[in-house]
Structures are given as C-alpha cells and as structure tokens.
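Sorry, any thoughts here?
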Amino acid sequence: MEHDRLIEGVLRDLRYRAPLPPPWPEAFRAEAREFVVAMARYADELELRLRAWAEPVWRDYGDELRRQDADHLEQEARATAAQREAEQQRAMRLADRTERLWQLPGMRPDIAELRTTIERREITRVYHWTEAKNLESILQHGLRPRRWLRERRVATSFHSYGSPAKARQLEDYVGVMLRSHEGMIQHAHDPIVLELEPAVIGVAGTLFVPGNSARADLDVTNRASLTTVEAFDALFDDKAGDWLVDWQSEIWIPGHISPLSIMAVGVRAAETYDRLIAAWPRQFATWPHAVELAFTGTWNVPSMIVSVDDIRV
C-alpha cells in the first residue's frame, strides 16, 4: 500500500514532465513499482548504515557529556573544598589576630576577667567614627589621641568634651563606642564608622564612662573608679546581654589604637562609598592587613558593617 502511494506520486510527477493521458501502461506502472521498491530497499540499507555509523558517534558523544559532567562536578567539589579551606584559614587568621591583640604589651592585669565578661556579653566589635578624609592616615598610623595630633599640627574636627578641663583630661585618649548610633554621627561631615576588635578596650587605664563624657554630671577625674571590670559591667542593663543603660556610653582608650585592630569600614553615603571603592586598590590594598569596605543602610544596625574578608597578619 505504501509503495502504491509512492508509485502514484511518481506517476503524477511524470505527468507534468511527460504529458501523457491516462491510463498509464501497465508495464510502465510495473517498472515504476520496481523502482520504488528498489529505492525503499536502498533507503532501508542506508538507514542501517547510518545507524551503524551513528550509534558509536552518539555513544562517544554521551560518554563525552558524562565526562564533562563528571569534570564539572569534580571542579565544583574542588572549588567548594578550596572555599572551605580558605574560610578555615581565614577563621584561623582572625583567631590568631584576635589572640595577638589580647596579648599585646600594656594590657590590664585582670585582662582574663575582662575578656571573659566581654565574651559572655557576646561583644564582637566596638566602633569609632571619623571623617572619610582621615581613613588613609588611620590605616597607616592607627587611631591617635588629640594631643598626639596637635603636637604634629594635624588638623582635627571639632569635638565637644563638655568643658576645657575634660578636654585636657581626655586629650591622651581615643574614644570608641559600643553602638554606632545616629546621634553621635549625624553632625559629622562625610562620616565613616570603623569596626574594631574588642581587645582594644583591654588596654590598662581604659575608662568605661556610663554616658556621654561631655555631660556635666559625669566626672572623669576619678579615673580609677572608671577602669574596673565592675565599671564596664555597669554600662549594661543586665548581667549577660549587651543592652546599654545609656546608648551614649563611651570607652576611652589611652595611647593609640593599632591599625591591625580595624576589621571593617562602614560607609553610609553612596558617593563616599563609590569614591573609596574607586581609590581602594591604589590607596589601601597594599597595607599589611586587609580591611573590608562595606556600604551600610543606617548607623543604628552595627551588624550591617560586614567583617573583614581576608586578614594578613
């Protein structure tokens, strides 16, 4: 039946090429049938040969796809392992840096007790705000007190200590915060917030001030009473958490803070972030310790200041 349809098709095609009126001669119809049968047989043979050729090709192609899939999975596994190894090494470097900072010379005698208290309260960073223009100098020299800057004729922004007497009392200290709140930063020009290792507050003589030191009712002359672990604990609303009695509580560290203590830089203004990002490889990427630059939506969410991605110590 299939051959007959093919024959009729051939005959119709021939009618246009050699216009002869039907009925077609039976002999010609038989010859056309033989031709169609022969073509069908050839097509079957050709299909068999094509299958014989294609099967190993498709088999090799399938094998190649499987090899590529296996290679891809192996590469992913290696990349995952490498990432895991890098994260482990980063964690080890961070832990090593943290340990080194806790063991620096000049730490308080009861440093173990203070560290236990800090860790119990899960305080993993403290903050210092400054202006973006100061960042390059800070990454080179660390955070320096006012007297050090004044003696070297380094211009500083205005800071109200409440009175000239308090300014003199605190001119050899660097202030840090336990919260990077809006109220302390809103009047600064082009501000940034530095995220610091909490070990910086373990330096002997550090003052734990339960509020804004500029307040008239806060006396920083009795420094001994502000340096104890009990004074640190008194900054908080409970025995275990990190909720402050006064969000403006300050910690004043004598001397200077090493740039190695800087974990990250938080930037809120998009234009400041873009400018620092553009200058980062040229200005900051060669320091012996890497610092993460992060864009923050608000100063009131410290967790948005991300941690350092890579630390070289």
